[in-house]
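Weekly sync, protein design subgroup
Attendees: M.S., D.O., the rotation student, P.L. (late)

Item 1: inverse folding check
M.S. brought a backbone from last month's batch and wanted to see whether the design step gives back something sensible before we order anything. D.O. pointed out we never logged the input encoding, so this time it goes straight into the notes. Structure tokens as presented (116 positions):
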């Protein structure tokens, strides 16, 4: 499923995985979030509900542009820097193209919605 992230007025195209977690995330959209910086590697935000993780790997090695769920905390984590394997991460989808809009410091206003 194609989605878009509008971050501080910049639009990022993304695709969600066709998995139970990816579909459940799509069902939450649209979302208005404040993306907080986490260790200058990822932007994180609380979600309004839980996502299913049954059948998902115990963790993943995220790449730049990965949209993930950090299952232990139940939050969204979008990677804009490289990071190693982390248990508890569930890949939900991926940003297609540049993640430069996520490089800005401080909280970022974001809207995530289904792309038409």
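Designed sequence read out in the meeting:
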């Amino acid at each position: 499923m194609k989605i878009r992230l509008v971050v501080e007025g910049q639009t990022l195209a993304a695709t969600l995985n066709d998995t139970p977690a990816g579909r459940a995330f799509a069902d939450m959209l649209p979302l208005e979030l404040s993306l907080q910086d986490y260790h200058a590697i990822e932007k994180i935000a609380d979600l309004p509900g839980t996502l299913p993780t049954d059948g998902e790997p115990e963790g993943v090695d995220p790449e730049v542009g990965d949209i993930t769920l950090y299952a232990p905390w139940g939050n969204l984590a979008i990677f804009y820097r490289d990071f190693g394997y982390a248990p508890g991460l569930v890949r939900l989808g991926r940003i297609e193209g540049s993640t430069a809009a996520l490089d800005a410091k401080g909280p970022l206003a974001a809207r995530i919605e289904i792309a038409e």
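Discussion: Helices lie at 20-28. The chain has a mean pLDDT of 96.
Action: P.L. to compare against the previous round before Friday.
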